[in-house]
TrEMBL record, chains A, B:
Organism of this sequence: Marinobacter qingdaonensis
Reactions accelerated catalytically: tRNA(Pro) + L-proline + ATP = L-prolyl-tRNA(Pro) + AMP + diphosphate
Main enzyme class: ligase
Description of its domains: Consists of three domains: the N-terminal catalytic domain, the editing domain and the C-terminal anticodon-binding domain.
Protein name: Proline--tRNA ligase
Gene this protein is translated from: proS
Amino acid sequence: MRASRYLIATQKETPADAEIISHQLMLRAGMIRKLAAGLYTWLPMGLRTLRKVERIVREEMDKSGGQEVLMPAVQPAELWEESGRWTQYGGELLRMNDRHGRDFCFGPTHEEVITDLIRNELKSYKELPANFYQIQTKFRDERRPRFGVMRAREFVMKDAYSFHLNAESLNDTYQVMHRTYCSIFDRLGLDYRPVQADSGAIGGSASHEFHVLASSGEDDIVFSTESSYAANIEKAEAVAPAGERPAPGEAMAEVATPGQRTIAAISEFLELDVKRTVKTLLVKGEADEDGNAGLVALILRGDHSLNEIKAENLAGIAEPLTMATDEEILAAVGCQPGSIGPVNLNVPVIVDRSAAHLADFVCGANKDDYHLTGVNWERDVPLARVEDIRNVVEGDPSPDGKGTLEIRRGIEVGHIFKLGNKYSQAMNATVLDENGKTAVMEMGCYGIGVSRIVAASIEQNHDDKGIIWPDAIAPFEIAIVTLNGHKSPTVAEAGEKLYEQLRQAGYDVLLDDRNERPGVKFADMELIGIPHRFVVSDRGLTAGTLEYKGRRDADKQDIPLEQALPFMVKASPRKGL
Amino acid sequence: MRASRYLIATQKETPADAEIISHQLMLRAGMIRKLAAGLYTWLPMGLRTLRKVERIVREEMDKSGGQEVLMPAVQPAELWEESGRWTQYGGELLRMNDRHGRDFCFGPTHEEVITDLIRNELKSYKELPANFYQIQTKFRDERRPRFGVMRAREFVMKDAYSFHLNAESLNDTYQVMHRTYCSIFDRLGLDYRPVQADSGAIGGSASHEFHVLASSGEDDIVFSTESSYAANIEKAEAVAPAGERPAPGEAMAEVATPGQRTIAAISEFLELDVKRTVKTLLVKGEADEDGNAGLVALILRGDHSLNEIKAENLAGIAEPLTMATDEEILAAVGCQPGSIGPVNLNVPVIVDRSAAHLADFVCGANKDDYHLTGVNWERDVPLARVEDIRNVVEGDPSPDGKGTLEIRRGIEVGHIFKLGNKYSQAMNATVLDENGKTAVMEMGCYGIGVSRIVAASIEQNHDDKGIIWPDAIAPFEIAIVTLNGHKSPTVAEAGEKLYEQLRQAGYDVLLDDRNERPGVKFADMELIGIPHRFVVSDRGLTAGTLEYKGRRDADKQDIPLEQALPFMVKASPRKGL
């Protein structure tokens, strides 16, 4: 491509509303433009990278036996009513009416549509397993779209759905997809980690997320220092502290704590390590047959935070997790939220493993402005139910017993699920098994955030000059910058010749033939992040050389003119060369 | 691809609700499935063809200097309000509200979005001309979606938009796009015609449609028998009859025509050639400053039909064309619609060129149940305004003076427009010209119905066994059918070997290794329309041959086993072989 005939829409200024580096650089490098909140146009430069990501995803999906389909973006409400999600799915589902007043949505995901398709198409176990995928524009009406294409409302996703006679077959395909995802992210040149994830809301028995490691990531992911254990924070297990609970050493006493309503305030007021306190959170319990729901108390060590997903997954707790209001607490317990404690509490109590290991701890007295000190489980308050309900913290032991946990930030770019029969059961998607009996299919689903990957890659690959693309997804692999080509026909001609030579060898080349100052051209090519750069100048041509600089190189080097192609083939091997 | 691991979703029965052959065959060949009215899932087999069409369109657009972008499907209402189309666009615009209650639409076209983008990105005439395109899923909420993907609500379109400093530059790009479209449709193997089209509603000065000729087409297109003149029926000019209008021969007389209200009835009742009658249609006139609109009479020869587009484009007539109601006619003229005529009519009269050439004609007397005979222009009624307001009919003289007109049915697969400054003016899209002065850009827009092309191709390429794909867009180019491969390892092995050989040579090959009867496999491959078929059998292998049959061939032929590849290269040449 000749830059003089191409939209090079670089910008010097960092856009004010772009918070993270990938968003800033995608705008500055002229890859995207905002149309409205969470809606972006992909400019030519950005679309080239997006299409390369798509191609890698497609090739690996095909290689693993996936069959590409394309389902409508607009989906009828009837199918979502069958699965129950028309009412369950919240504000992120963009709903609409057609001209006849019928309900539709802009699909954020396609479980219902594919299940409907497959229940009509596949009749026999002989046609299983089967795995269908699409690469498609989806819509999720995010309350707070932000970070550019990282959390856009309209985005490109690869979604795949597999169908099986039984759980073993699902498990096989799940493993294949796990490996396929690793191949995809390897080829994309990403530093990523597959981590165990909670599969709660979507259902099913297992789930892994694939995270690109980046400080701007919105998710906490957890690793063991000494094993391959990795999980997202929602899923990472907080194991019980080692050893026996210490024996009681103090007598329980009520102390006045006027105006002290937070854990921090209490521990300062009583001059006590926060780890000796517990906090008591009241949440809604599961509703009974008549729809009445009482409250449930969750007890955590003062320095720990509630893991809402873990809590929500417990029996007896309403889903989604709902905190009791101040009024409900006052009515049930008779005090303000800051003064609740487990002793003599008239609601069921669930104690976190770490809190359950405390002795001589401090808690609210269920009376405003009073706390209890020297409290001990069993002696002062029964320890009926102990569960893992907290987020792990750095230094916690790894659940597999090897090493301790580290926490890093990740950007979720892939997610694979064993759905089991959640959708197939609800929508009656069955086949005949070997014995001619009707069997509900098992399903898996497998997503990749295609457009998000573009941003995630930039989060990992940039410097103060701009983006640094891996060769595989660079909009152009090579930039040829001609210096004063509009004045020097020799330079212009040599530039064209090199351009044709490298292009015909199969490289994506951008010939920067613009009538711009060298500094402007260099800055643009670096901002755009093209991995390989040749400079054609009169000075060089006189000496029979080109200047080469890799985007990550500290120094330039001179290459004999006729060595350009062999040099490139060595730097970035090409099939058949 | 191995058929045993691929969704071959063929059906024997012709679906009841599929009216046209392409819709029937796309369903029967397992290319698409209906999700809801006008919403189709592309199954793997269909998607392969769709992607090949996309690729050809993309390659030719790139070759002609188009720059690919990807704009959001969901568009904010504000932009459509700027252009005025938010209110003008009818029920086909799928409107929706996001979670914050803001108005959006699912884009049926992207003039507003691209104009908004370009007015922000391009500042100088030096950056012009520029041509941006996308291949994207669009939505048009058709009142009556039908014919499968031919007239679906959700569909894939290539839309391109060019920007220019002046009309000359627009004209150049328009010509380039005209040639590009011809290259695209040539490569797609379509029998098509570019025809002049009306550019009324979208505006602009010129427009051509590209029609695939097919009897199932919904449009009438008009050709000269002796020149390259071609236009759609909306645009095709009906020239005035040759020679002078005959002199009056009869006296005007009023005759009673009790109950005779149609042209057919009148001409039968009066035993008169229908070509001696005129019909008078009353339509709404253009509203004056106060919003009041009178009626206008349109006079046509009895055997001719009104061309609504031509009428609507005339000064003095309301847009869109609106027929007067019976009540309005009664109030204005004092009679029923079937008895109106131009003589002493108290509304302005516009006479079609052919009607204006009549002498001694019959018309309504503006009095129920009475007509006038022997009426003559000028003598009995002034001939104030003569215009071309009728549809041409077969046998009319060609407007270029060469030959007569033929009418055939066409499927519109492409449309190019000179938009002029309709959008750039309304949305203030300007650049600085050579003199540093602000200039409103000229625009062109260029559409191709990508998914419709798949259906249109089938309308032209099928027989009673199924689809007959051109090589360029066949889902697979070659089918290898193994006979009893599950019983004969020799056959299975030879099939695999041939499959690998042809695949590695760059052909898209479907190896039909299914455990099905030969008849089933042959029927499926023919229904799917794969252009080249090899059969591997024990009998053939013993003789060292394969059987070959082209999809259009009457007879099979035996090919020596080792000649398969050279044979294919000859039948369907491959780059580099």
